[in-house]
Amino acid sequence: MPELTTLDEKLGEVLGLAQAAQTAAKKVATLARKEKETEVVEVLQKMQEDAKQVEERCKEVATSRDGMKTAINMKARETKTEITDFMKTYLEDAETLDGLEFLSMSEAGELAHWEILAKLNETAKDKQIANLADASLPIQQRHVATVRQHALRLAAEEDPSEPA
Q1: What distances in angstroms separate CA 158 from CA 18, 67, 80, 96, one per listed residue?
Q2: Mean pLDDT, range 58-78, rounded to an integer
Q3: In a designed cystine with 100, which of 9, 60, 151, 155 is the match (CB 3.0 to 4.6 A)?
Q4: Is the pTM of this model over 0.90?
């Protein structure tokens, strides 16, 4: 199997993060549903749909990378597994706010990965990567802002004196 370039490796990572984001959004939506946080559930369903679309775009670009599709997909699986394992640990016995805290970390990390991919591509000048990053960056920025907004709203509703 060919060795991944730095650009291909980052593509694999953002692909894996998009896959993990779908799993995380579904898990946190389940927590929100239990607490009747319908607005959060709706937001997370939209985020899950966005992540699915990003995954599909990433796979399309990966397919076009000369002989690298399998290696990129392996990197994606590795990244998804790492995030999913961390999520399982972090969200054990969790509430919606805990879920949003996890998403704030994972979405911010995903945004950083997209920004890095875009920066790497300033030198590589790959048109498909540029188009992918241009489409995905605003989605990630919106996800970070939305998760933050809902997390802060729920935090404001918490009683800071209450036992944890």
Answers
A1: 30, 52, 32, 12
A2: 96
A3: 151
A4: yes
Using only the alpha carbons of the chain, give its radius of gyration: 17
Tell whether 2 is covered by a domain: no
Mean per-residue pLDDT of the chain: 97
CB 141 within 8 A of CB 107: no
What's the pLDDT band for 1 if we cut at 50, 70, 90? Answer: low
Domain hosting residue 74, numbered range: 20-157
143 is a domain residue: yes
Q: What is the DSSP string of 10-34?
A: HHHHHHHHHHHHHHHHHHHHHHHHH
Q: Does residue 128 fall inside a structural domain?
A: yes
Distances in whole angstroms, Cα of residue 155 to Cα of each of 19, 34, 94, 120, 159: 28, 17, 14, 37, 8
Q: Give tens-digit pLDDT for 12-57.
A: 999 999 999 999 999 999 999 999 999 999 999 999 999 999 999 9
Q: How many domains does the chain have?
A: 1
| Residue 162: DSSP 8-state | S
